[in-house]
Amino acid sequence: MSPKPRANDVKERLVEAAIRLLAEGGPEALQARKLAAEVGVSTMAVYTHFGGMAALVDEVARTGFRKLSAWLAEVAETDDPVADIFGLARTYRQAVAEQPQLFAVTFGQSAPGGKRATLSDLTTEEGREAAQEGLEAFEHIVRATERAIEAGRFRPADKYQAAAQLWSALHGFVTLEASGHFGAGEQGIDHILIPLGITLAVGLGDTVERAEHSTEAAKAVWRARTGNAGQGGND
Amino acid sequence: MSPKPRANDVKERLVEAAIRLLAEGGPEALQARKLAAEVGVSTMAVYTHFGGMAALVDEVARTGFRKLSAWLAEVAETDDPVADIFGLARTYRQAVAEQPQLFAVTFGQSAPGGKRATLSDLTTEEGREAAQEGLEAFEHIVRATERAIEAGRFRPADKYQAAAQLWSALHGFVTLEASGHFGAGEQGIDHILIPLGITLAVGLGDTVERAEHSTEAAKAVWRARTGNAGQGGND
DNA sequence: CTCCATTTATAACAGGGTTATGAGATACTG
DNA sequence: CAGTATCTCATAACCCTGTTATAAATGGAG
Fold first, then answer.
1. Among A27, A120, A204, whose Cβ lies nearest the Cβ of B180?
2. Using CB atoms, which residue from B124, B172, B182 is nearest to A122?
3. N or C: which end of chain B has fewer CB within 10 A?
4. Cα dihedral sign for A210, A216, A222, A228?
């Protein structure tokens, strides 16, 4: 097996193997020796390509952001921007639910004190320029928020500020759910995420009726997407 | 120094030292040998008292929850339950801002030595029993939410469900802020946390005017508390 | 005092990340 | 084409950290 790894995709394969090990065995399974064995090379590959495990983990974290952005980008824009926001939320939650270990690294690695350039303030112009991958995922929420404001569903407001509110709530729910605080399975979606979304939409200016209608629309779109061809694959 | 550790508070001192090392050097500094040296004992103490580093980290996580609960318990109940919720939010945020490393462990984002602390489900009866400390912090939000519903500020709703929404949003904001996404200092509070709180309050049934008034009331209380005698001490 | 349980220090072991070194491959240069 | 420089990778060692085996010290029970 593994006849001979072709020249330069060893780096790529290391990251892929790292994500696989992470998904299967959690953070403890992410070890240089296991990684090397998985790819069929020696541990030196980690050092020639990344400089060390820390940098590799960093790359894994960035890959998580990229995957998240890619998934969010697949959410189609409809004429109901609030429903689109719910669609983004479901997608965000689904990504984390499917690969909790990966996103635990992704969100954990962005902590300050780490080596990596931290994503800076997303509510200022300069900050947005400094933050690459993290911002990209955020931008999808911003765009949908902007459309909701333009459509009169949300009150006029700073789109970044409103989107940051939505992102906070969504991220908090997803994080707490991944930590096991909201039970297993899908119950957290119905019991908390959807009511939370309605609360936020209404608080931002939508009516209860329209917000509820949008959750139903989003649920229908979601069923069509995941019913036909699940989006849970590897990009 | 350290004349001779008295019998059974070695356990206590180990946890204290662990929190100190964590605060000063991050997760990587939380090591059995450093810990033992800090307390003035051998590494064996970790094993006789905890069974291993994993259990010690777990105890550190639980201590974080206990401190958080203690801080939240200090927030007085006024006749404005929505203002009280804002007070709880500021306190929650302040705790994490002051001891980000500790709460990164508490919430499971940081994994010293690969050993993550695990928490339990708060939306089920059994889960709530298993998670004493986690629940205690959550209960403060539940209680304030209940009062807001009873006072007619929030629409009638399941108090746990409504509180879970508030907790999600608050936790998400705090987490993202601690990761550096919302800039440094207090700007995240004014730009995002307070607007988020107003959005949620309004979405749950409050009026914009009363919600805004409550944020001001909470800010005044906060200034009085932190202006007089900061609450940043150890429990 | 003697016995027993608990706690602790010492020292070794095990398993990780990392590094030194040299061999092989690759590409550029004359 | 020959030679050389560079990049990549395997081997083997090194260091650090969690852990455990063992025995000494401690302290209460009888």
1. A120
2. B182
3. N
4. negative
**Residue position matching structure tokens 């989006």:** A231
Which whole-number Å values give the CA distances from A231 to A30, A102, B121, in the listed order?
26, 17, 28
Q: Which residue of chain A is at minimal alpha-carbon distance from B106?
A: A179
B47 CB neighbours strand D below 7 A: yes
Q: What is the pLDDT of residues B5-61, one digit of tens each?
A: 444 588 999 999 999 999 999 998 999 999 999 999 999 999 999 999 999 999 999
- For B71-112, the pLDDT digits (tens) are 999 998 999 999 999 999 999 999 999 999 999 999 877 666
pTM: 0.89
Three-state DSSP class for residue A8: helix
- CB neighbours of residue B139 within 10 Å: 17
d(CA B87, CA B141) in angstroms, rounded, equals 10
* Token code pair at residue A24: 């299967």
How many angstroms separate the CA atoms of A31 and A43, rounded?
A: 9
CA angle B164, B168, B103 (to 5 degrees): 115
> Would you tell me how many other CB atoms lie within 10 Å of the CB of residue B170?
24
Strand D contacted by A29 CB (< 7 A): no
> Which residue in this structure is represented by tokens 């639980």?
B62
Residue A10 approaches strand D within 7 Å at CB: yes
Q: What is the DSSP letter of A20?
A: H
**Residues B39, B5: contact at Cβ < 8 Å?**
yes
> Which bases of chain D come closer than 7 Å to a protein CB?
7-12, 17-22, 27-28
Residues of B in contact with A183 (CB under 8 A): 121, 123-124, 127
- Read off the pLDDT of residues A95-109 as tens digits, 9 standing for 90 and up: 999 999 999 999 875
